[in-house]
């Protein structure tokens, strides 16, 4: 670890560090959320977007969404003047794109130019892919009746697909979790700086910072456990989750080629563009969890429950990027750069491991090591809670849907009316009902194997010997 790598924070107070993080990396007092609630409306030039987005649940229920979107004109992004306006435009276009793709009996493979053209421009400006990322559905998509974004009872989604409290609650649990975790970021940034200094180190102070991080992670976990209060698993699985799917690894759901984004006119005066395969929005795109991993030195391999294989002898090949590395491309640019900046410093695990293996460690150093282990156990416990939520909201509803589909097939009835992530999860490769569905997340990963591996890798970080 470089002792000078975090020089902007040397000798600074926690408040001064927080100010620097906000200016340099858009990391505010609410963590990766904005300091104030996001903008609710765009300038009058974009009234046609606002008109559709306000009626989105109704248009989806009546099947009129696609027709209304096709009536839109291609609007310029030149009237977007502030960061808040660019973010609001990204949210609107992300929801409209997902609604258009998944809002019919069959998914739409081609986006209308009225969505794709400005969406590509807005996405480039914000350094994000043109898909409904976690930033669009969560970070920049809420209102709050108080100044405390950690109070999930006072935050509400501005935009949903279904208009249900279930969907708003699902998104807002994550918003409250982000705000809760955000309070630990400046202190942990300083703790990492202190760990990179040459001795003497204040191990007692490092241990206190780690205990604060553990307490913060525990609070985040308690918020996650409240998901069941206002979000019904079947409503989430059948009505909400299909709209969150991306176009990557979605062949079975009806997008074998991904989605075509028209971008410009060709010589014949027709719209032309490129096919894209994007991952759908998921909590894996949360910079909060990635920050915890970076600070604690949790290392992740490639997706699923398999490890990256070394290249054949005599061949030089870059190791495949893990899913955790890849989804950083789905985070706002400043947040992504913050994670890179912090990760370049090393981690607290390096120091804890060195001390744990030393025969001369004193009591304060051992207290620091114990605090580090408790923090990794807390983060592993949070991932365990996530697995429990996924089981309740995806695994069990998928099994029920598969059983119902088998029953209708046995009775000679038509099993599928719509084609989306939920219905495709209940069938096998031949299109027949599956006894045990193989489930993928909205981000395209094999679901439970990936989550279990992430949890196990977190606990492994605490095994210092």
From TrEMBL:
Checking SUPFAM superfamilies in the record gives: Indolic compounds 2,3-dioxygenase-like
Keywords attached to this Swiss-Prot or TrEMBL record, sorted alphabetically, are: Iron, Metal-binding
Q: Which Gene3D superfamilies match?
A: 1.20.58.480
Cross-referenced Pfam families, in alphabetical order?
Answer: IDO
Q: Where is this region: Disordered?
A: 301-322, 421-447
- Composition-biased stretches, type Polar residues, lie in 421-432
Superkingdom to which the source organism belongs: Eukaryota
Question: Which family, according to UniProt?
Answer: Belongs to the indoleamine 2,3-dioxygenase family.
Protein name (Swiss-Prot/TrEMBL): Indoleamine 2-3-dioxygenase
